[in-house]
Amino acid sequence: MVQKILLTIWMAVIIVAAFLYTEAAVGFPGQTSRILFFHVPQSWVATLSFLVSMAASVVYLAKRKLKADHVAQSAAELGFLFCILATVTGSIFAKATWGSFWNWDPRETSIVILLTIYGAYFALRSAISDPDRCRVLAAVYSILAFVTVPFLVFVVPRITASLHPENTMNPANPGMDPRTLTVFLGSLFAYTALYLWMLRLRIRILNLESLKVRDLFRGRGGGNPKTENEQPRMKGGRAQ
Amino acid sequence: MFTLRVSDIGKHYGETLLFRNISFELHKGDVLAITGWNGAGKSTLLRILAGLVRPSAGAVEMFFNGKPVEKESRRRFIGMVAPAFSLYDELTGLENMEFFATVRGLSDGGDHCLDTLHRVGLSDHAGKTCRDYSSGMKQRLKLAQALLHEPPLLLLDEPGSNLDSRGITIVEEIIAEQRTLGVTVIASNEKREADYADRVFNLSE
Amino acid sequence: MPQTKSVKRTTRTESSTYLNEAIAIWFRDMRSEFRTRYALNAILMFAVTTLIAVSFAIGSFRIDESERPFLYAVLLWIILTFSALSGLSRSFVKEEEAGTIDVLKLSARPQAVFLGKLLFNLSLLGALGVVIVPTFILLMAYQINFPVFFTTMIITGCLGLGAGTTIIAAMIARASGRGALFSVLSLPLLLPLMITCIKGCERAAIGYDSAGWPEVKIAVAYVIIMITMSLFLFSLVWEE
């Protein structure tokens, strides 16, 4: 409860500071640089979430613990959300700065490919009816997708840089005077905290939902099949 | 000497519970029949024994000459027949057998394939494409495929389906012979097939 | 009835290698394909009809000479990729639909199955490349100044298409909506490869001596990584 309130206050402070406490950066038209306080942390969270989801997938495949799959799924959902936010805010920035909503510069391309990976992940999850198989396949896909990321990091900049030389402006480093830097880092912290809070909530929901099935499986009903020669085996002392 | 040990096997699909707490142990010469209503999970249990399906709980262990058999090696020890199985329609009976012999890494190839086909009464049809087989002939070919590598564990899901009286005699001979090789597990609703076994397991109880 | 041979057979160490088994699976698929030509027809018909549409719409003269190396590379790789996606899932889907997949699971080792199916997919891609690429070059009057580089790029690119999609085909074989799902899942993984191949073909057409052929190296790295990861992960996908 306290965390929720603190987080709300912190985020409110950041939003206000982004507009009132800092100066608009030089070299960017009008007030557009302010969006970077929001856009960069969002894409940071989207990428971080992808990593978390992949790591949880590896754990799930190794240990088959249901909770690991819940982490993977929750991280993917939130990552998708923040990825959409990052794409939209980036697009708004692009329109304001370069005049068009989409330019395929390296960062835009990477975030869109991340978006397609997330989308494919959810398409896969909804297409498999057997829950156990669904988890395994989603985990496998998450790992395969992650493996292609280095290619994006190396390939995309080499290719697109030569096609669109004017888009090499790196929005990750707005001219950082001390105020801007403070608010930027504060925003990064706020977004990460927000993400972790949402992640924990979502994982808890999934964990609770799965308890239903676990209780069904360990509860009454089902049988203890007897054979002609063997005594019935009791589980946990429960009588038939 | 082959041993099959099943400990506390359970299976559920999502929120549907199929069965749980299934345990038994079988040694060479044993024949076990699994019976139960439709949907009780007979076929699923057999698939779990074969390694085609992961159990939700419990473990399936196999031992050969005292040493445990790892999951990766189990294909050599298991032969299975099931209604849901199919063989390759566009190949002939013999081509199917030769394919499975190669894929299983059996080096004796040709002759043994023909012998096994003869054993199930398909010698005369070995050169015909499976598309032209009757359902009884297809069932016999499935039996042949399961016997090809002489597995210590034979899993038969409704082995008599689609077979005429001669086919059924062949199944009986196979089960009798399997007693000298290892273990047989039969899943069936038919009393006649359940009667082949020494022990009966009813999943619906 | 002949004497049953002894149990010795099953315990004798088998001298068969993954490769032998994989080749057996490959040849069986080829034999089956030769008798039905289902997948090959699907792939070639898709490619030919798309090529005809493109050629008709664009013709050989409507695009400016300076733009052609790049645009033609793009069109060629779009045709190759989408044709591949229309047919490469066939080998697994067919096994699943015909009901032959269970016996294969019982008889063959997972890695051998993967290699066998990969070889089959590569054969289909080989046929696709041999038919479509020369036809495209002729129809569109595609000027290639560096044919050796171009051919190498096409070959490694096709290897990549196979390497990136074979495990996905196994994943979707039982899913609902598997045709669309196959494309949705494969494209994010194939994007880095496509971008590289387009760039490589463009450079080959221009005659720019891409020193050391970096695009080919990237594509080869992609092939190696995807095949390695697939070999690791395939048994998880193959077994339920």
What does this structure look like?
The complex is a heterotrimer of chains A (240), B (205) and C (240). Helix content of chain A is 74%, strand content 0%. In chain A, helix 2 (36-63) packs antiparallel against helix 3, helix 2 (36-63) crosses helix 5 (131-163) and helix 3 runs antiparallel to helix 6. Chain A starts with a helix and ends in a 22-residue tail after the last helix. Chain A has one domain (2-18, 33-161, 177-208). By secondary structure, chain A is mainly alpha-helical. Residues 162-172 and 220-240 of chain A have low confidence and may be disordered. Helices cover 32% and strands 28% of the residues of chain B. Chain B is α/β, with parallel strands linked by helices and 205 residues long. The mean pLDDT of chain B is 91. Chain B has six helices and nine strands; from the N terminus they run E-E-E-H-E-E-E-H-H-H-E-H-E-H-E. In chain B, strands 6-7-8-3-9 form a five-stranded parallel sheet, with helices on both faces. Chain B has a four-stranded antiparallel sheet with strand order 2-1-4-5, covered by helices on one side. By secondary structure, chain C is mainly alpha-helical. Chain C contains ten helices and no strands. Chain C has helices at 8-11, 18-36, 38-58, 68-87, 90-98, 101-107, 110-140, 147-172, 178-206, 214-238. The chains are: A mainly alpha (240), B alpha/beta (205), C mainly alpha (240). Chains in contact: A-B, A-C, B-C. Chain B binds chain C through residues 50-54, 64, 72, 75-80, 82, 84-91, 99-100, 102-108, 112, 115, 118-119, 142, 145, 149-152, 173, 177, 181-182, and chain C through 1-2, 4-5, 7, 9-11, 14-16, 20-21, 24-25, 28, 31-32, 35-36, 98-100, 102-109, 112, 239-240.
Short description:
Chain A has helices at residues 2-21, 36-63, 66-98, 106-127, 131-163, 178-218. Chain A is mainly α.
- N→C terminal distance of chain C: 38 Å
Query: How many discrete domains of chain C?
Result: 1
H/E element order of chain A: HHHHHH
* SSE run of chain C: HHHHHHHHHH
Mean pLDDT of chain C: 88
Number of E-type strands of chain A? 0
Overall 3D geometry of chain C? globular
Biggest sheet descriptor of chain C: none
Share of helical residues of chain A: over 70%
Count the DSSP helices of chain C: 10
Query: What structural class results from the helix and strand content of chain C?
Result: mainly alpha
Query: Which percent band covers the strand fraction of chain C?
Result: under 5%
Question: What is the quaternary state of this protein?
Answer: heterotrimer
The DSSP helix count of chain A reads 6
Helix content of chain C: over 70%
